[in-house]
Design goal:
Largest sheet of chain B: 6 strands, mixed
Protein name (chain A): PTS system D-fructose-specific IIA component (F1P-forming), Frc family
Number of strands of chain B: 6
Pfam families (chain A): PTS_EIIA_2
Oligomer: heterodimer
CATH topology of one domain in chain B: Rossmann fold
CATH architecture of one domain in chain B: 3-Layer(aba) Sandwich
Helix content of chain B: 55-70%
Shape of chain B: elongated
Mean pLDDT of chain A: 87
Mean pLDDT of chain B: 86
Order of helices and strands of chain B: EHEEHEEHHEHHHHHHHHHHHHH
Structural class of chain A: alpha/beta
CATH class of one domain in chain B: Alpha Beta
Structural class of chain B: alpha/beta
CATH superfamily of chain A: Mannitol-specific EII, Chain A
Number of helices of chain A: 5
Strand content of chain B: 5-15%
CATH superfamily of one domain in chain B: Response regulator
Keywords (chain A): Phosphoprotein, Phosphotransferase system, Sugar transport, Transferase, Transport
Organism (chain A): Marinilactibacillus piezotolerans
InterPro entries (chain A): PTrfase/Anion_transptr (IPR016152), PTS_EIIA_type-2_dom (IPR002178), PTS_IIA_fruc (IPR004715), PTS_SugarTrans_NitroReg (IPR051541)
Distance between the termini of chain B: 45 Å
Largest sheet of chain A: 5 strands, mixed
Number of strands of chain A: 5
CATH architecture of chain A: 3-Layer(aba) Sandwich
Chain lengths: ~150, ~475
């Protein structure tokens, strides 16, 4: 199997602000059972953001949270209909959000390595291009699977 | 010869994403530039792709793209480009090019120029903020190491008061052997506070040689009665004395490196810093006596002026000569039967830790986890008259925090004098309430000052947090 990690991919998410995106991520994570508590997850996302922006370049952001409310390593991936302001590194608005959920006490390193690999992928121009062009959840899923197992 | 060879280290606080993105960016950039690179990552998992001593030795340049300590001292003698992790992601191409061009600061025996790499091509971004940040980093290193000493010592002393505030005094009826032991152990832990503060400020500036010198300098400061402000000064002196020594001794042959580390730095450093600190401590007694005379002349003046003076003095250096002057005057007047004066001093000594406590209570999200916890512990320390609890907060940002504490303490002292509170005990905080006249008013006075002070401190914190984020 490709990526041994739970993930939820949604395209055409509409949100006006970063906070709204965080809110949607938290709800999605809780409804999928990745985490217990939306408020705690929201707080963890914001705390990480306060340490430095997770808005990278070319419209990609990788908000991540490490919290005891998170039950298992997981990803929530949104493709936004419109760019939102994220104070990103290149100043561009963010329209592709890949959020990483990390449990407070992650025992194995496998999952952490996977998440780090995802982060690395976002530095690759060809992957970024593919993701930008993808317009279905399954397409996005297969891009990740292809590149991560590679 | 082989290709141009770069070693790099990346790291970020969470250690999940940025660390690896910087690694990827640097590897790509190096690949494009046709140079060789090995990137060590400091992530959540730990250090991966670790650089060996051999690899570092063979490297032509070093790039550090990290927001955490990646043990830069390993790169001594190398040209280093040192930037934040986000620049590593964003400007990897430029960093590689700078490495090839031989830019970057040469690393000599200390990493005092931690940000120098950044400064070189970033000089427009005002050197001032870098220096400010550097000072803050050194202070933080001292404060975070000091904190557990304050907490452990303070809480043990506070617990010993449960047997009565004189329980450590063998001549008193309250004497209890166990309480006395708690008090003594707690006192020793708190006594290490200033030396530790000084030692780790110096360590942050000049690594291990700094640690030794800072420790001794801090002990001199502590014994000289300079309080924590003296500890901060001695930490910086110690650190920069080592930096200076390393510059002066640069000419020595490499064969003598071992001698430097084990003999020259500690001996010369301790000698110089020790003498300087002894010199600085000398006037402390004079200051202390002068302040006591000054204060005594005000003992009968109006409550507002007296409260303002007592409050400001008590919160100014929290255990230094000025605070001691207020406290000792209070105990002296107490011996003469004036228990009004001491009430204000106690109020002003209780307020600072409570101010920090209320500040983290109201403005928790602007404080780190460690600070929040120590702020809550400060409710215990404040309630038992252990002013030192506020020191870790004050030491981080003395210029803003100390005036705020002074204001809060002054309010507490002024109200105490207006309410005509009498406190017949020299210590113990709220534990002596049963013997306090107008005890309820006293508590109100202290809480009023503490809450106002806590609110002001939180606002300052909020403001500076906003500035930092930029």
């Amino acid at each position: 199997m490709g990526i041994d990690i739970r993930k939820s991919i949604i395209i055409d998410v509409s949100a006006l602000t970063q906070q709204e995106v965080f809110d949607l991520i938290s709800k999605e994570a809780v409804s999928n059972g990745y985490a217990d508590n939306t408020a705690l997850l929201l707080k963890a996302l914001n705390e990480r953001e306060a340490e430095g922006t997770t808005g990278m370049m070319d419209g990609f952001a990788i908000p991540h949270a490490k919290s005891k409310t998170i039950k298992e390593p997981a990803m929530v991936i949104f493709k936004l209909t419109d760019g939102v302001e994220w104070n990103s590194m290149d100043g561009k608005k963010i329209d592709f959000v890949i959020s990483l959920m990390i449990p407070e006490k992650e025992k194995g390193t496998t999952h952490l390595q996977l998440l780090s690999k995802v982060a690395r992928l976002l530095m690759k121009n060809d992957v970024k291009q593919l993701l930008k062009n993808a317009n279905s959840a399954s397409e996005i899923d297969s891009i990740f699977t292809r590149y991560i197992t590679k | 010869m082989s290709k141009f060879n770069i070693v790099a280290a990346t790291g970020c606080p969470t250690g999940i994403a940025h660390t690896y993105m910087a690694q990827e960016a640097l590897e790509q950039a190096a690949n494009e530039a046709g140079v060789q690179i090995k990137v060590e990552t400091h992530g959540q998992i730990g250090v991966e792709n670790a650089l060996t001593a051999e690899e570092i030795k063979n490297a032509d340049a070093v790039i550090i793209a990290a927001d955490k300590d990646v043990h830069a001292e390993r790169f001594e003698g190398k040209k280093i480009i040192d930037v934040s992790v986000s620049r590593g992601i964003k400007d990897a191409d430029a960093l590689i090019q700078q490495a090839i061009d031989g830019k970057g600061r040469l690393m000599v025996s200390t990493n005092r120029n931690k940000n120098s790499g950044t400064q070189e091509f970033n000089s427009e971004e005002s050197e001032k903020t870098n220096i400010g940040r550097l000072i803050y980093k050194h202070l933080m290193n001292g404060v975070s190491h000091m904190l557990p000493f304050v907490v452990s010592g303070g809480v043990l002393v506070a617990v010993s008061f449960l047997w009565g505030i004189y329980s450590a005094d063998p001549t008193n009826a309250q004497y209890n052997e166990f309480a006395a032991t708690l008090n003594e152990v707690g006192g020793l832990a708190m006594g290490l506070m200033v030396p530790i503060l000084s030692a780790y400020i110096a360590q942050s500036i000049a690594q291990r040689p700094g640690l030794v010198v800072g420790f001794v300098g801090g002990l001199v400061a502590s014994n000289g009665g300079t309080g924590f402000l003296g500890g901060i000064i001695s930490g910086f002196i110690a650190g920069y004395v080592i930096v200076l020594l390393s510059k002066m001794l640069k000419g020595l042959p490499i064969a003598l490196d071992g001698l430097k580390a084990i003999f020259l730095y500690p001996v010369l450093g301790v000698f110089i810093t020790g003498l300087l600190m002894v010199g600085l401590s000398q006037p402390m007694e004079t200051i202390n006596i002068a302040m006591m005379d000054f204060l005594a002349s005000f003992q009968d003046s109006n409550p507002v002026i007296l409260g303002l003076i007592v409050g400001s003095m008590s919160a100014f250096d929290m255990g230094g000569p000025i605070n001691k002057a207020a406290y000792v005057t209070g105990t002296a007047l107490l011996a003469q039967g004036n228990s009004y004066f001491m009430a204000g001093v106690s109020a002003a000594c209780i307020a600072p830790p409570l101010i920090t406590g209320f500040s983290v209570l109201f403005f928790g999200k602007y404080y780190g986890k460690e600070e929040r916890n120590s702020g809550f512990v400060n409710f215990i320390l404040g309630s038992t008259h252990i002013t030192e609890g506020a020191i870790p907060f004050a030491a981080k940002d003395p210029l803003r925090v100390i005036p705020t504490l002074m204001m809060g303490s002054s309010i507490a002292a002024i109200l105490t004098y207006l309410f005509k509170v009498q406190v017949p005990a020299p210590h113990g905080g709220f534990l002596v309430l049963p013997v306090v006249t107008n005890g309820l008013l006293w508590v109100i006075a202290i809480l009023t000052g503490s809450i106002i002070g806590g609110f002001a401190l939180g606002m300052i914190r909020k403001h500076s947090a906003g500035v930092l984020e930029k």
